[in-house]
Amino acid sequence: MGVIKEGFKAKTDVANAEIKELIKEHGSKKIGEVTLAQAYQGMRGITGLVTETSLLDAQEGIRFRGYSIPELQEKLPGMHKGGEPLPEGLFLLMLLGELPTEEQVHHLTSVWQRRSHVPNHVFATIDALPVTAHPMTMFVTGVMALQTESNFAKDPIYDDAMDLIARLPRIAAYVYRRKYKNNEHIQPDGLLDWAGNLAHMMGFDDESFKELMRLYMTIHADHEGGNVSAHTTHLVGSALSDPYLSYAAGMNGLAGPLHGLANQEVIKWIFEMQEKLGTDSPSKEQIAQYVKDTLSAGKVVPGYGHAVLRKTDPRFTAQMEFGKKHMPDDKLVNTVWNIYDTVPPILQSLGKIKNPWPNVDAHSGALLVHFGLVEYEFYTVLFAVSRALGVMASLCWDRALGFPLERPKSVTTESVKLWLEGKGEIWE
Ligand code: HAX
Known about the structure:
CATH class of the largest domain: Mainly Alpha
Order of helices and strands: HHEEEHHHHHHHHHHHHHHHHH
Strand content: under 5%
Organism: Russula earlei
Distance between the termini: 47 Å
Bound molecules: N-hydroxyamidocarboxymethyldethia coenzyme *A
Structural class: mainly alpha
Largest sheet: 3 strands, antiparallel
CATH architecture of the largest domain: Orthogonal Bundle
CATH topology of the largest domain: Citrate Synthase, domain 1
Protein name: Si-synthase
């Protein structure tokens, strides 16, 4: 057994004993109640899941095992002094619950390199799709083809999770080069870190772009358990579907425009604004008018609002800081900042939106475009590669803690009506 796996087992043994005791002592304590509106309206605010890897505070934003994004940028080992954290370190933090050392992070880089081989049939399966297919369709199809490599039937979960994460950059880069770069592929560089190698295989060898990938892969990794991609992975995993099947299911959810596809929608919306206004540097007044036009057309402003967060997403702020450091004069990046100055008061004035502030997706596209990654349909694939870190660390915990099949009760409107008339119990 490798050192990471051993460390994980030791942690889960302790946690299992603790949770057993916790349930014995406090299992009957109520942690909330459910209203009829919540049952009809997306179960918002119902606490009904345990996810160990991260916790979202509506005011503070995401904390990974207690650490905020700025704290992680300071404390997690990077490739360069003062540079962005290596996502390998975040994965170890989520899996083991402790900040890793530099040595442990570099060890994980080499473990993932060793496990990164993708068999040829995966590429052939992707090739069977028309080149017009959406990159997320190609990516998830590739993951499903990779499922033949699952060892879940023989080995509990850890090895599948590690193999899957290690192989995803190769599949993502393959999709990118097939769809946008004449099917000309770039071999992995065995000396690079996980995110750096993804950048390299996509064809971006600029060190600043590699740093962006390290940041991007770190900040998109996890957002507690209830979001669509994390919850779906967890739900499908609760049926003892293996990590490949569970992750693919979750990523189909990430591909929705109200979730991970929002990053492509944001940049599309900005490009359309530039085209409509005939300028690549729209003024704040022009932006305000365009926002109002979007709203009057009955559309949402992409990249703004959140189901749980109630302030500017720290993942947006981290990207803004990156922009200030690496490309302060970029016109598109400056437009994103002008949108940030303009949109919240307009959304606030609608009086119905709970969070007028930007989420993670409001910024990411502009940074990618700066480096020439203009194919915005691909952005959700990058999000998906990063999200694997969180959902796989969580799935390892789900299985180690023996979480059972998830099966909430549902009701019909007919049964609700009868209950309201006093003619039956809604939960029967
Ligand atoms: N622009 C215009 N109207 C918005 C809005 C936005 N950005 N965000 C919310 N609203 C509207 C809602 O449509 C809703 O209107 P109705 O009552 O008329 O239906 C009202 O404000 C209340 O919504 P809410 O309770 O504040 O927000 P929800 O929890 O229902 O939805 C969403 C959260 C993220 C889905 C929503 O804010 C939205 O659609 N944002 C734009 C898309 C986006 O950026 N998605 C990415 C989210 C982050 C993420 O998951 N990334 O992966």
